[in-house]
Fold:
Amino acid sequence: MALPFTRPEFLQVFADYNEGIWPLQVVAGLLGVIALASLFSNSRIADRVIAGILAVLWSVTGIGYHWLFFSSISPAAYIFGALFLIAACIFLVEGTVRNRIRFRFVRGIRGWAALLVLTYSLIVYPLMGLAITHPYPETPLFGVAPCPTVIFSLGLLLLAAYRRPLLLAAVPLLWAGIGGSAAFLLGVPQDLGLLVAALIWLAGWIHQRLVIRQPTTGRAPGQ
Structure:
């Protein structure tokens, strides 16, 4: 698949973006840590906080990265930015305003898989960029770049309780397919984490639906 830009142009966008928004990267990282810590909190506002942080990160990435910087080399950036803002609005309205999304850490495979995905997005992803593919400021960083932000979101959504989970995951899953191609087309191996995170979320969603639909086979006493 031919891209409308070259790899050097793609990396230059990140360099300009990171230099233009500094120190917002630090703020985004702190917000990620707060969201992660809130998973273990019994506070009444923890769910609203997590959803609000997701809304902020998706808004910053949609407007800041896609519309203001990536659009200089790709017209599709305007569509991508709109999708990110739609996701941000869903998190804001359903999570922060209406408080309909519950985020809680659960023990077991789902919980540890979510922590693995979250740790990858917060720590491993940026370190891989700095050490393997391209140095700062060309590095996509958590909370301000699309791919690590989407990976982080899918990790949180693994632990989310909401009546329409596909509504929350629709844009993250779509971007996992779009952004995951960068691992091959643009030489960004850490973006393979997008595809892995998407598959983990889908496996969890399918398992949950199968459990809900599983018929009760036991008989009541005396039958």
Notes: The chain has nine helices and two strands. The radius of gyration is 18 Å. The beta strands are 102-103, 160-161.
